Structure formats: C-alpha cells, structure tokens
From TrEMBL:
Ranges of residues in domain ABC transporter: 6-224
Protein name (record): Lipoprotein-releasing system ATP-binding protein
MF (Gene Ontology): ATP binding; ATP hydrolysis activity; transmembrane transporter activity
GO cellular component, one term: membrane protein complex
Organism of provenance: Sphingomonas abaci
EC number, UniProt record: 3.6.3.-
UniProt key word Cell membrane: yes
C-alpha cells in the first residue's frame, strides 16, 4: 500500500486570552491517501484555517504529530519547514495573492524558479497549466486585467506548478459568486486529479464539499 501523503496524530492547538484557555484543535487524527481529495467542512470560526496553518507549517505552537510523505515535520526548524513547503505543498487561499506586477505566466513561473527549475521548462509548465485551466489566451495579462475567477485559476496553477504531493486550499472559491465558484472548483478538482496530487480543502459549503472524495467535519475542535 502507498504511504499516506498526510498523517496527523493528536494534533492540538490552544490559545490563552486573559484568564481563559481556548482549545481550537483537540486531538486531531487524520490520514489522506495519495491522490485523495478531502473536504474539511465546518462553519466559520471552527478552526479550519488553524488546521491548514498547522499542516502548511505556517505557524508554531502546535502539539502532536504531522507527517507529510512519511516525514515527521512538526518539529522542523524554519529552514526545514521552508523546504517542505517548497517541495511538497501547494497553497490556494480565498484571496489569490498574485503578484500584481507580474503577468499570469510569470506568477506561475516564479515558484518554479525558486524551486530550481530552468526558465524554459518553467515557462512551458506554466503555459500547460494555465491552458488546462482555460487561460491560454490570458498568459500575458496581469492580475488587474483578469476577472476574479481568472485570478483564482492562476492561483490554482501556481499551487500545482511544482507538482506538490499535497495541495492545501482554504475556502478557494469563497470570494467568488456561485456560478464562478462552481466553475473554478470543477477545474480545480479536475486538474488536481490529473496531476495526481492529494488535497485538503477547507470549506463551509456542504454542496461543494460533496463533490470531493471524502468529507471530514470539524466541530468543537475535533474531527468527525
């Protein structure tokens, strides 16, 4: 059997506000198989973003185990976390966070250059991904020249540029109208599956969650 892309064991996160302790995550156990797309469902404030920050190695202060592609990463130093994020993870957020002075292709090329790719190969990879997302005619457009849905498609291409083992998406269509959200999510799911990546997608939308391979629910800091 293939080793899980992601394994969480007893993952916990607490905050102290005044004299009160707030337990946001309380002993999370989760395993995601290679190529599996899992919806993380829960209302706003339930801890979905906190869980993704833990898996994405974007914040410290967590207890428990985080294994990505078989490696324990929870206690890595800053440099080690950067390497894991660069080599094994892709990120899609509610807001696209594209670089405004770079065109669509350049936004997808840049993480590949950081990863060590040669420019011609990075250009070709960016063109392939953007064309697969229906943006073959928008390759040289800057974010300000793209619609909200088009900008989010560029963000999806950027997340997949370095062929990550795991894509983390935090409300990836939350800033789009319903029709555009449906289109972008369908393209996201299709391309992630074609690329062979796994994905953990945080959403509060039951209907969108139902289009993924499996749904886990975050309630009062625990998964069901």
């Amino acid at each position: 059997m293939n080793e899980p892309v992601l394994q969480l064991a007893s993952l916990a996160r607490s905050f102290v506000q005044g004299d009160a302790r707030i337990d946001v995550l309380r002993g999370i156990d989760l395993s995601i198989a290679p190529g599996e797309i899992v919806a993380l469902l829960g209302p706003s404030g339930s801890g979905k973003s906190t869980l993704l920050q833990a898996v994405g190695l974007l914040e410290g202060g967590f207890e428990g185990s985080i294994r990505i592609a078989g490696e324990e990463v929870a206690r890595l130093d800053a440099h080690g976390r950067t390497i894991v994020r660069r080599d094994r993870l892709g990120f899609v957020y509610q807001f696209h966070h594209l670089l405004p002075d770079f065109n669509a292709t350049e936004n997808v090329v840049l993480p590949q250059l950081v990863h060590g790719a040669a420019r011609p190969a990075a250009d070709a990879r960016a063109t392939t991904l953007l064309t697969a997302l229906g943006l073959g005619h928008r390759l040289t457009h800057r974010p300000s020249q793209l619609s909200g849905g088009e900008q989010q498609r560029v963000a999806v291409a950027r997340a997949l540029a370095n062929r990550p083992a795991l894509v983390l998406a935090d409300e990836p269509t939350g800033n789009l109208d319903e029709t555009t959200a449906d289109i972008v999510l369908a393209e996201f799911l299709r391309l992630v599956r074609e690329e062979g990546s796994a994905a953990l997608v945080a959403t509060h939308n039951e209907r969108l969650a139902g289009r993924m391979d499996r749904v886990v629910r975050l309630h009062e800091g625990k998964l069901a």
